[in-house]
Design brief:
Elements lengths: L1 H21 L20 H10 L1 H4 L14 H15 L13 H6 L6 H6 L7 H15 L7
The chain binds heme C.
Amino acid sequence: MIFKKKVVKRILFALIFVLVVIQFIPVDRTNPPVIREPDWDSPKTRGFAVRACFDCHSNQTIWPIYAYIAPISWLVASDVSEAREKLNMSEWKPGDGKKAAKEFRIGDMPVIYYKWMHPKSWLNKKEKEEFLKGLIATFGEEKKEK
Ligand code: HEC
């Protein structure tokens, strides 16, 4: 019994040690300057995008507290960097974002675990309809996809 307790203790200490050490691995949480935003069809559309998309798809990310705690911080940072690569609403070029309306309509965006953590991104039915229209008016829409 005593032996087992010792083992458990050692494993716990090792775990804590690892958790402490990984906090020192640098994570990129920069917000580069805003270069150009999309030509929003209305401030309202932009407002919805700020609530539901900007934390990942812009250079104006509000980094949550857990984005400072490894290993969760790694997941957040990698999501943001991947999302910015695909569509950055702070470094917009004409033609970008044609998939935005579809991703939003089919419910792929914002990603589900983001919604769990960010009630501000919850849009009601009417807001969703308005946002979808706004996304299409702003970014256009890719045809021939459901
Ligand atoms: C939690 C971060 C996060 C949020 C919030 C988020 N996205 Fe994304 N988005 C991603 C990531 C990561 C990818 C790249 C991986 C993928 O396609 O699933 C992505 C990809 C995309 C793509 C490219 C899809 C493709 O296949 O090229 C579009 C368009 C997009 N998102 C639109 C949106 C819109 C519109 C919103 C707001 C309604 C939004 N996203 C909110 C993280 C996010």
